[in-house]
Amino acid sequence: MNVKLFKDLCEATGAPGFEYGIRDLIISEMTPLADEISVDNIGNVTALIKGRSSEKSIMCAAHMDEIGFIVRHIDDNGFIRILPLGGFDAKTLTAQRVMVHGKKDLPGCMGVKPIHVMSPEERTKMPAVTDYVVDLGLPKDEVVKYVSVGDSITRVSDLVEMGDCVNVKSIDNRGGCYMLIEAVRAIIASGNRPDYDLYAVFSVQEEVGLRGAHAATLAIQPTFAFALDVTIAFDTPGSAAHDKCTELGKGTAIKVYDGTLITDPRMVKFMTALAEEGEIPHQLELLAAGGTDAGAMQKFTGGGSICGAISIPVRNVHQSIEMAHKVDIQASVDLLTACFTSLSRWDWSWKQAERTLAPKQGA
Ligand SMILES: [Zn+2]
Questions:
Q1: 3.40.50.150, 3.40.630.10, 3.40.470.10, 1.10.1140.10: CATH of 3-66+169-345
Q2: Which end of the chain is more exposed for a tag (fewer CB within 10 A), N or C?
């Protein structure tokens, strides 16, 4: 696994609607691999990789935004009040470092009331994101030189390798961006091409409601659509078997269900067959709540697209630091690579019970 690229992607900044840092990095990674690259009006990066055939099309979306905040108010003492951009587990924000992206980047920390002065009720109450203030360590007249209402704020954390895992902020969804870059790179490096024209989309504003993917899908109108994201691995002590969703180290997750998508069952079988054929470790994912770009891609194509999703299992998702296993990350790249180069083997029949995978060409 390319830990350096994974680290650069996760550490890059880009709150929903403010994907400046991550977009530049993705453009520099994808430009040497793509036949065409463009940025649309909402800010999605689309890299076209021409396929062996243009008869059908593939759209693959990895959202590049990360959960973040927006500056709502600056008080007389220079403290910043915020609104969330995306769904935070607010209790994990206490005393975390953040970066405020104003005229220049300023480091800050997330302050709440110290436990010593909390009432007994306050000690047991869960904080809301809006209870926090961002402390820049500066007086108001210095803060307002650089920071304006409406600026974005992101979390700060460096990637640490822990055992066989990587631990850093924003694996959701820089892990998905990594998967897409590395799958395209693997195909190009082997002198191959995707079976059909591939639109690799690095989408914006997923965390606030799949907005970038919606816009890109309306433009691309793909036959096949894949979303790449992370999913919950609640495999820590105390979790019930049916609540785990996925487990770290058990392989890439083939999505079956989430709050925005019932995966095309034909796609679940197709991916499972490819994983078995390629001996790629895999598990099935049923995510009780939450969603992915697949939810937009499936329904905003006229007549619908044949949609699936590949997820990297992640512990502590939407918290300050997230954890993923290197085996699962590589398995996700491998399965995605196999999907892009096997869609000409798609079984077009609707007979679910008898589905087959056409033999590999030349086999
Ligand atoms: Zn995500």
A1: 3.40.630.10
A2: C
276 is annotated as an active-site residue: no
Which CATH fold topology does 68-155 show?
Answer: Elongation Factor Tu (Ef-tu); domain 3 (2.40.30)
What is the whole-number distance in angstroms between the Cα of residue 210 and the centre of ligand 1? 10
Distance from residue 166's CA to the centre of ligand 1 (Å): 17
Q: What is the secondary structure of 220-248 as a DSSP string?
A: H--SEEEEEEEEEB--STT--GGG-B--T
| pLDDT 10s digits, 172-225 | 999 999 999 999 999 999 999 999 999 999 999 999 999 999 999 999 999 999
d(CA 346, CA 84): 42
Q: What are phi and psi of 41, to 5 degrees?
A: -65, -30
Its pTM surpasses 0.85: yes
Q: How far is the CA of 345 from the centre of ligand 1 (A)?
A: 29
Instruction: Identify the active-site residue in 29, 182, 206, 285.
Output: 206
Domain ranges of the chain: 3-66+169-345, 68-155
